[in-house]
Amino acid sequence: MNLTRLALVVTVALAAALPARAAAADTPDTVPPGPPGRPVVTGITYTDATMTWAPAVDDRGVVQYGIWQRTPDRGDMFYNATSATTFRFSGLAPGTAYTFFVVASDGRNNGPASPSVTFQTRTAPVESQPPSRPGTPTVTAISPTTAELAWTPSTDNVAVIRYLVYRVVGTTRTLFTYGDASATTRLQFLVPDRDYTLVVVAEDPAGNRSEASAPGRLRPPPDPGASCRVSFAGPSPGAPGMHRVAVTYTGAAAVMHWSARFALPAGTTVSWAWTAWEHTGGDLVFYYEGWADTLVPGETINLDMALTGPGRPDPATARLNGVPCT
């Protein structure tokens, strides 16, 4: 047998076959998944329920299930998505009927909808006894932009259906987040090096709310990717109370939320500032926690402020997202 000729024939055959296989793998997927099985709902409470369904069949595999709600006044509305064949609802209204169905996706095509399922959450009793006061929220884990909180749970003559977490600034209390009956929560999109005071309130199925917990406090740690330069200008001519601190962000990646912190001498107060600010102890903290902008490398933030009193911001104490400026 001519081995050289045989090797050549095999090589040519493989070369001819590989492009065909690659082309088959690159063929656009035009076949949608089949419908998922009829959903089944179990574990229904005043506000929660678990829905499961048989998986859909697809020639290349299902990557996601869309959960849709059928409403009487707004039609079919997207509700959530999962890669599993089970989903836990939370935050539903007591004594309310809900209709849901499931749609499978293979990443390119959506299949037909499953049959729908209708269920009703438990009806809340008519009563006026609020839950007991929750324990003080404490930090169990923290990063520059997230924190995990836990507290001693409340008790109630019927049930606790959820906890609401409020941020307290002075005498103002603003809802920060809410969850389910678990006495834990995860805070996201925090601003590094900003002070937070938080209280927790429990709610029962009738809508009765507990007394707020004692306040818990946290300050996210510095962002290790932050760096900055600082310069000071002021007081402005003709406006002796006006000052400007210019902070240039020298980090490598854009950031969504930021804080800039300075020490203020005792007896100095702020009467106006260019952006959102807080006077915490002896520190003046400017911050941005919106969604319309990012702080990009090389960008300079001009922090203008009107001060009264004997002092001015000390540039030597400037920190951006918790990291000292140069």
From TrEMBL:
It comes from the Bacteria. The lineage of its organism: Bacteria, Bacillati, Actinomycetota, Actinomycetes, Micromonosporales. InterPro entries: CBD2, CBM2/CBM3_carb-bd_dom_sf, CBM2_carb-bd_dom_sf, FN3_dom, FN3_sf, Ig-like_fold, RTP_Phos/Ushers. The keyword Hydrolase applies. Residues 111-139, 207-226 are annotated as: Disordered. Residues 111-123 have a biased composition (Polar residues). SUPFAM superfamilies: Carbohydrate-binding domain (SSF49384), Fibronectin type III (SSF49265). This is Fibronectin type-III domain-containing protein. Pfam families: CBM_2 (PF00553), fn3 (PF00041). Residues 35-124, 133-223 form the Fibronectin type-III domain.
